[in-house]
Amino acid sequence: MTNAQAVAATLRAIRAKLDLTQEQLAERLGVSFATVNRWEGGSNMPQKAAREVITALAEEAGVATVEDATESPESAANVTRRRRGAVAAPTTKPMEQMLWDAACSIRGEKDAAKFKDYLLPLLFLKRLSDVFDDEITRLAEEYGDRETALEIAETDHSLLRFYLPPEARWGVISGRESNEWPLDDRGESTKPKDIGEHLTKAVRAVVKQNPPLSGVIDVVDFAAERNGERDVNPAKLRGVIETFSDSRYRLGLSDVQPDFLGRAYEYLLRKFAEGSGQSAGEFFTPTEVGFLMAHIMRPRPGEDCHDYACGSAGLLVKLQLVARELDPTSKVPLKLTGQELQAESYAVAQMNGIIHDMEIEIARGDTMINPKFRTTDGKVKTHDIVIANPMWNQPFNPDVFANDPFDRFRTSGGITTGKGDWAWLQHTLACLNEHGRAAVVLDTGAVTRGSGSKNEDKERNIRKWFVDRDLIDGVILLPDNLFYNTSAAGVIVVLSKRKSAARKDKIVLLNASRRLKKGKPKNYIPEEDIRPLAIAFLKGEPVEGEIAIVTTEQAEKADYNLSPSKWVGQADAVNQRPIKEIMAELLALDEQARNIDSSLAKMLVRL
Fold it and tell me: Residue 281's closest CA among 312, 250, 254, 325?
C-alpha cells in the first residue's frame, strides 16, 4: 500500500467511525469535498499541514493515524478490514445538490426539467475546461511553465483529450480571466454582448476545434429569442455560471473520478426525467432497472455490447460499471456501441460517455428502418450482449417490412401486426452472435397478448417460435410505476443463444413486484435488492412468491403466456379472497350497522 492509499484508508475509517459524509469531513478538515474525494481515491497525497489535521482527527476518532498508516500499511488495511461493513462510499450529494440548484436557478424547481438541453452542455463544457486546465498543468510540469505548455498545445492538439480555444475556457466564461476578442471584417470587436452570446460562441468554437463534438455540445443557442425576449435570461445564465464556478465543485481529472461525476450526472438526468412526463422515457431508464439488467448480463472484459435504442447511453454505461465491479483488475474495456433516433438524446448520450471517461460509438438513425451497425456485406452486425429499452407498444406496419432487407422477421416467427414489441425482440435476435445474450425492457402485454387466440395471433406465434427454439432464458416482471413515461409495470425479457445445460428447455420467471418501495413521483427498487435479484435469476431455482421455473412443455400448455404473475404465487396469496365472499361480508356488516343504529335510536327516544 502506498502512502496515498494509506491516507485514503485512514480517511474512510474516520468517516465510518464518526458517521460523516465526504462533505462533512471536508468541513472538519477545512478543504473542499472534491479534495477529500481525491484523497480517498488515492490519486493525490495531502500536504504535511493537511496530514497533521487528519492525524488529529484520526486520534479523536480512535482510528489509526496517518503516521501509523504510512509506517505500517497493514494497520490502515486492518482498520478498513475491521470496519468494512460500515465504510460508506464517497457521497455525491454535494455535487448533486449543486447541479440541481443550478437547474432550479433558471426557472425554479417546477420548470427546471425543461432546461435540460441548456444545463447539460454547460456542465459538459465545465468538465472539458477543467480537464483541459489539468492537462495544461501536466504539460507545464514537463516543459517548464504554463505559457510554454499553452503554445505547445495550440500547435499540437493531439496532446490533449479535447482542445479548448481561449473563449471557451471557464475562466474566460466566468469573467475571472480576460480574453482578446478579434475584430470582424468591418473592424468591430467580436466580443459578445452578454453571457448568452458568449456561451453560443464558445460551444461553436469548441466544435470547430473538435469536430466529433458536433451535435453534442452545440445543440442549443443560448442567445435564442422568441417575440423579442431571450428564451433564457442572461442574468439567470450568469447565476448558473457562478454556481458552476464554485471552487468546491471543480470537475477536473485531479478533482473527481469519472464514476463520481457520472453518478452526479445521472442524478441530474433522473431529476429531469421526473419533471419531463411522457418524453422522459425517450432518454432515461430508471437506474435500478439498468443495473439489474447489467448484473444479469454479467459482462466480461472486451465483450461487444450494443444498445439499439440507447437514449442517454445509461444502459451501456452501467454494463461497463458492472464489468469493472466483477473484474476490477482488468484493463480491457467493453466495446460499447449504440444507436439513437432523437438528436437531443444522442447529444446526452455522447456527453454521458465522455463524462464517464468511456468510449462509446453512437450513431443516429431509426434502428428498425436503418440499423447503422452492419458488417461489410451489409448484414446486421452481431454482438455478445444486447441491452435495450425500446419504445413500448410502438405501432408496427407489416407492409413496410414485408421485404425487410435484413430478413429479421420472416425467418424468426413471421411479421407481427399492430404493436412492435416482438419486432424489437426479433431485431435483438438478429443482433446476437452465436453465443450472445440480451435483456430488453418491454410492456407487460408483450408476454401475454394473443394467448388463447387459437393460433391466430401473430405475437403469440412469434412467442411460440422463440420458446420452441429455447431462446427465452427468462422474464422478469417489474413493479408498477417505475418508469417515467408510464405508470404501468414493465417486463425484462432475457434471451440467450447458448443456455447452460441446467437451463435447457426451461424459462425462469421472476416476479419482482414485492421489492417495490413507494417513492415520489415514482416508485423504485432499493439498491440493496438489485444484486440479490440478479443472483436469484441467474441461479435459476424456485423461490416461494418470487421465482418459478417452467419448462417449454408447460409454456406450450399455457399457450405461451409467459407472464411471471401467472406462474409465481405471491407471498400474500393466503390473504386474498374471492370478491363474492368479500361483498357478502360487506353486506352483512352493513346490515349489522343498520341494526345497531336502530337500537341506538330506540334507546335515545326513551331517554
Answer: 312
- pTM of the model as a whole: 0.75
Residue 161: count of CB within 10 angstroms of its CB: 16
Tell me the pLDDT tens digit for each residue of 558-578. 999 999 999 986 444 344 566
* pLDDT at residue 487 greater than cutoff 70: yes
318 pLDDT above the threshold of 60? yes
CA distance 521 to 378: 45
What the block records as the C-alpha cell of 174 is 466566468
Q: Cβ distance 167 to 199 under 8 Å?
A: no
Task: Give me the DSSP letters along 454-523.
Answer: TT--HHHHHHHHHHHTT-EEEEEEPPTT-STT-SS-EEEEEEESS--GGGTTEEEEEE-GGG-B--SSS-
CA distance linking residue 346 with residue 122, whole number of Å: 16
Sign of CA dihedral 98, 217, 203, 358: positive
pLDDT in tens, 213-255: 999 999 889 998 988 888 888 988 898 899 888 877 788 877 7
Q: How far is CA 35 from CA 96, 103, 193, 267, 292, in A?
A: 16, 24, 36, 21, 32
- 40/8 Cα distance (integer angstroms): 4
Percentage of residues in the chain with pLDDT exceeding 90? 47
Distance CA 204, CA 120 (A): 16
Q: Tell me the C-alpha distance between 153 and 97, whole Å.
A: 35
Which of these, 442, 510, 507, lies nearest to 469 by C-alpha position?
Answer: 507
Between 397 and 292, where is the model more confident? 292
Distance in angstroms (rounded) separating the CA atoms of residues 112 and 60: 43
